[in-house]
Specification:
Strands 1-2 form a two-stranded antiparallel ribbon. By secondary structure, it is mainly alpha-helical. It is built from 7 helices and 2 strands. Helix 1 packs parallel to helix 7 and helix 3 packs parallel to helix 5. A hairpin with a 2-residue loop joins strand 1 and strand 2.
């Protein structure tokens, strides 16, 4: 893993690490596979988390901890999608909108979780350079991945909110490649959101009596 933490190249004055580059490219692939509702989104996300864990461990412990949680949620997502992959009739999960109760629960969990994690980071400064934005990204990522695992269209909105903070934070911390990838994430999120939104409406549309299924 030490060899992955060496410099790959310099871009716009920023030093790009192999681990940062490979881990984030895998994360980008995982998001694209999630857009296509492909089960392999989760193993790729796990691999991305593993590599980024190695990149952050030792000097950005909070970010490394986030990747450890990402790997756990990736295992949960794999299990959930494996269970429900026949929902849509095409071998994939059927996207749906969350209920108002689910939305309230996720918003509440995100708010409480962000405060709790930020206070933890502030109590132990070695865990994070920027406690509040780092906590926001940490918890937002977990909430987004949970919603994705449950097949909720809202997971795209959660990723979009994470991107708004993730881009400047990664550039500020010297992870330029992560920052550039987050920008691409934003474009993928908008396309994926549209696709899942349309699919959720199709799956919710009732079939007329006598019409072919």
């Amino acid at each position: 893993m030490n060899s992955l933490n060496t410099e790959a190249f310099t871009l716009f004055g920023q030093h790009i690490l192999w681990s940062d580059m490979i881990g984030n490219i895998l994360g980008l692939i995982a998001l694209a596979l999630g857009w296509r509702r492909n089960l392999w989104s989760w193993p790729v996300q796990f691999a991305s988390g593993l590599i980024l864990f190695g990149a952050f461990y030792g000097h950005l412990t909070g970010s490394a901890g986030k990747q450890a949680v990402v790997m756990v949620v990736a295992l949960y997502g794999w299990w959930q999608w494996n269970r429900n992959k026949e929902q849509s009739g095409d071998g994939h999960i059927a996207p749906r909108f969350a209920t108002w109760t689910e939305r309230a629960s996720m918003i509440g969990a995100a708010a409480v979780g962000t405060v709790a994690v930020a206070l933890l980071f502030k109590a132990y400064p070695s865990l994070s350079w920027d406690p509040w934005p780092d906590a926001y990204i940490f918890v937002g990522t977990v909430v987004a991945m949970y919603a994705q695992a449950r097949g909720m269209v809202e997971f795209w909105f959660a990723w979009l909110l994470v991107d708004l903070v993730g881009v400047p934070l990664n550039f500020a911390n010297g992870y330029a490649f992560s920052g550039f990838v987050y920008v691409i994430y934003g474009a993928l999120v908008l396309w994926g959101m549209r696709d899942w939104w349309l699919r959720s409406r199709e799956s919710a549309r009732p079939v007329m009596e006598g019409a072919p299924a």
